[in-house]
Specification:
- It is a single chain.
- The protein is α+β, with helices and mostly antiparallel strands and 195 residues long.
- 25% of the residues lie in helices and 28% in strands.
- The protein is built from five helices and nine strands.
- It has a six-stranded antiparallel β-sheet with strand order 1-5-9-8-7-6.
- Strand 6 and strand 7 form a beta hairpin.
- Helix 3 packs across helix 4.
- It is globular, with a radius of gyration of 16 Å.
- The mean pLDDT is 92.
């Protein structure tokens, strides 16, 4: 993400990367180590996104948005709102009522966090993005203060919906986000998809 952002020019296409990480705790730029309660055997990585500590792992959809904000004509606050609105709309499609929590970025279902956001903007371009809990193990969240909030409950879409298809959820999320940003989705080439 950093290399892509540093090397992109005014004509570089914006990209959305959808992926799943192996188990890792990430500490954002404002991350405080006291929010790591008992990481155990899960690695802790300092990253250059905003925010505190979060967990990424199997069963979680991570979407990294590499967007030229100037060209898109939006600011960081609007981008965060768009990401949150995208997740809420996605969850509505699964008949799951989601909402926001004042002063705590992300998306919540039944008072528990289902999606986290963390961005970085450099040279007018965003990278990093969001993580949506689909059907993974939530135990690692008990080893941290998620997003710096002691006792913050977390949930996953699989607690509300049976037979999730992570690939389909990712494509739905991409479609909603593209529409909200006024973009058209293009499929990557075989070489790009293999990266």
């Amino acid at each position: 993400m950093q290399a892509f952002t540093d090397q992109r020019g005014a004509a570089s296409a914006d990209e959305l990367w959808l992926l799943e990480h192996t188990a890792v705790f990430t500490l954002g730029q404002a991350g405080r180590r006291e929010h790591l309660l008992a990481p155990g055997d899960i690695p802790v990585v300092q990253v250059d996104r905003g925010g505190q500590v979060t967990y990424h792992g199997p069963g979680q959809l991570v979407a990294y948005l590499l967007l030229d904000l100037r060209r898109a004509g939006i600011g960081v606050k609007r981008l965060v709102e768009t990401l949150e609105e995208t997740i809420i709309e996605l969850l509505e499609g699964y008949a799951v009522a989601a909402g926001l929590r004042p002063g705590a970025p992300g998306v919540y279902v039944g008072g528990r966090k289902i999606a986290s956001l963390g961005l970085r903007v450099r040279r007018g371009c965003s990278f990093h993005g969001l993580a949506l809990n689909l059907d993974g193990d939530l135990e690692p969240f008990s080893r941290i203060n998620p997003c710096g909030y002691p006792g913050l409950g977390v949930t996953r879409l699989g607690d509300w919906v049976n037979d999730l298809d992570p690939g389909a959820v990712g494509l739905e999320l991409a479609g909603i986000l593209a529409r909200r940003l006024g973009f058209e989705l293009c499929q990557p080439s075989a070489d790009e998809a293999a990266l």
